[in-house]
Write a structure and sequence with these properties.
globular, Jelly Rolls, 10 strands, alpha+beta, 148 residues, 4-stranded antiparallel β-sheet, 43% strand
Length: 148
């Protein structure tokens, strides 16, 4: 085999390794920290990355998304707020009739929970809303996982 063929064969063998290494992303420290706080019995399903400026309204959630949830499944919504945020990341979940089924804020005590567990009683499309306390600015991550 000529030396040119050996070089070409070597490049063909090494090329996939270089493309795989180049495709990997640098891990997000906030995401890594949040993943580690979901618990060992949890299975990652989805994440939401939230970044909001100062808001004008404190009554409406500024980031909303729809999510399909399944009956008889226990979900954990973990909320992580970046250190430089002015407010804490909060979550509310509405069912298809627009009724609040879960919130990470206890309105009686003002406590903001870093995670909430939800046992879904009815399969369907739910709306998840994220914001920061008092409509303040901030960034954060919410990880949705299934508890086994």
């Amino acid at each position: 085999m000529t030396s040119m063929k050996k070089i070409l064969l070597g490049l063909l063998i090494l090329f996939p390794a270089f493309t795989i290494a180049a495709g990997q992303t640098v891990p997000d420290p906030m995401m890594s920290k949040c993943l580690s706080s979901t618990g060992q019995a949890s299975k990652y399903l989805k994440d939401y990355r939230i970044q909001l400026g100062q808001g004008t309204s404190q009554n409406d959630f500024r980031y909303r998304a729809k999510m399909s949830l399944w009956k008889n499944t226990k979900y954990r919504f973990t909320l992580c707020t970046a250190d430089n945020s002015k407010g804490k990341l909060i979550l509310t979940i509405w069912d298809e009739t627009n009724k609040i089924v879960l919130s990470s804020v206890d309105n009686d005590t003002g406590t903001v929970y870093s995670y909430i567990d939800f046992i879904c009683n009815k399969s369907g499309i739910y709306q998840v809303g994220f914001d920061f306390t008092e409509g303040q600015s901030g960034s954060g991550v919410s990880i949705v996982s299934m508890i086994q």
